[in-house]
Amino acid sequence: MAVLEARDQISLNDTKPAPAISARDVERQTSEELKEKDIDYSQRSQWLRAAVLGANDGLVSTASLMMGVGAVKEDIKAMILTGFAGLVSGACSMAIGEFVSVYSQLDIELAQMKRERRGGENSEKEVQLPSPVQAAAASALAFSVGALVPLLAASFIKEYKLRLGVVVGAVSLALLVFGWVGAVLGRAPGLRSSVRVLVGGWLAMALTFGLTKLIGSSGL
């Protein structure tokens, strides 16, 4: 009889329900997980969006330079050399500007960490410091990728008017793609953003072409 009672007591202990988790604990855990995901997505999207914007800058500026030269010179060599010069100068400018900017940010964060150590604050938390070299390389690469679009579009077409048309077509397609990608990363309406980027690129090319044509025809 004592054995049966002990066995029943053990079975009751085994079937004892686990301590209940409050709704507040579940909500807190869920919010922390979502916060971590949002932070990771935010950091990733910022880098990707910066790369898209850099590529868009390279695309528009290089294409506008090529269209401006094409307004006064029909020679394919002059257009290609101008585009290549725009690619190199723009990539260098982007890289140097990004390097200086990120290096200044790095100096500020390092100085803040030193002040916290001197003040006795807990500075053992994980801090991801920016890399000036990485930022400069990413900016130069993104600009170069965008600048390659009009260069490759014009490289193998000798006929003047067809070459201008192909450049405008290739740049327009790339602008739509860059605008849509930037909208997706920024969680904005894709169509509206793509059209806005496309119209902006058209205006830049048209103004450069028109003003260069006007100055060239005046004999300056």
TrEMBL record:
Region forming the signal peptide: none
Taxonomic superkingdom: Eukaryota
Classification of source organism: Eukaryota, Viridiplantae, Streptophyta, Embryophyta, Tracheophyta
GO MF terms, alphabetically ordered: iron ion sequestering activity; iron ion transmembrane transporter activity; manganese ion transmembrane transporter activity
The protein, known as: Vacuolar iron transporter
Catalytic reactions of this protein: Fe(2+)(in) = Fe(2+)(out)
InterPro entries: Ccc1_fam
GO cellular component, one term: vacuolar membrane
Membrane topology: Multi-pass membrane protein
Function description: Vacuolar Fe(2+) uptake transporter.
Subcellular location(s) per record: Vacuole membrane
Segments traversing the membrane: 76-96, 135-157, 164-185, 197-216
Alphabetic keyword roster: Ion transport, Iron, Iron transport, Membrane, Transmembrane, Transmembrane helix, Transport, Vacuole
Pfam family, one: VIT1
Family: Belongs to the CCC1 family.
GO biological process, one term: intracellular manganese ion homeostasis
